[in-house]
Design goal:
Layout lengths: L8 H28 L2 H6 L1 H16 L2 E5 L9 H22 L3 E9 L2 E8 L6 H8 L5 E4 H11 L3 E7 L2 E9 L1 H18 L1
Parallel strand pairs: 1-2
Antiparallel strand pairs: 2-3, 3-6, 5-6
């Protein structure tokens, strides 16, 4: 409708700005829709989907990202994978918005029955007062982002911790996955046994 409108010379600039904003909103909505549940997460798992997301994030934000993940990539339950993926997205959104860091370091590890996601930046850190409120689990201390992440992690029996100083902020999420890994291993063994 906007593109079909005619405008006087005085209104032309306003109309052009409105068209541009509508196009940007549409592009952003498509991106958000994709990022909420990227097809690659179902197809290839958390490590591969994270790698693709981080490459796009780095291009969009200008923040250099280092990513470490296990070489043999174990699939986790869909609930754990989507929770960790969304934590990664939210954590990097916070790095981009608040930290003023030009670098981020992401590590994904799975050992001793725990999957651990670590997101570290080299930014200005979180003010001590706000950090205390965040650690104290005050409702809405951070808006909904961190509270939502913490709640999703708790529902899976895990925990989310934040450390911060003038050298940067580190977010660590740990979720127990021993039963899931055993389930995946036994399913793999069954598939291999049926092939033999």
């Amino acid at each position: 409708n906007l593109s079909q409108m005619t405008a006087s010379a005085a209104e032309a600039d306003l109309l052009a700005q409105s068209l541009k904003l509508a196009d940007e909103a549409l592009a952003e909505t498509r991106t958000l829709s994709y990022l909420l549940h990227p097809p690659l997460l179902d197809e290839a798992g958390l490590a591969s989907a994270s790698q693709a997301f981080l490459e796009g994030f780095s291009k969009r934000s200008g923040i250099s990202v280092e990513f470490k993940a296990p070489k043999d990539r174990v699939r986790l339950s869909p609930d754990v994978e989507i929770t960790l993926f969304r934590v990664l997205q939210e954590a990097l959104t916070n790095v981009h918005k608040h930290s003023k860091s030009t670098r981020a370091h992401i590590a994904l590890a799975c050992e001793s029955g725990l999957v651990t996601l670590t997101v570290n930046d080299e930014g200005k850190g979180i003010r001590q007062e706000l950090l205390s409120r965040l650690r104290g689990n005050e409702p809405h201390a951070d808006g909904v982002g961190l509270s939502g992440m913490r709640e999703r992690v708790r529902e899976l029996g895990g925990e989310l911790n934040i450390e911060s100083s003038r050298r940067g902020t580190t977010l660590i999420v740990m979720i127990p996955v021993a039963t899931e890994l055993q389930h995946i291993e036994s399913a793999t063994e069954k598939r291999q046994g049926s092939v033999a």
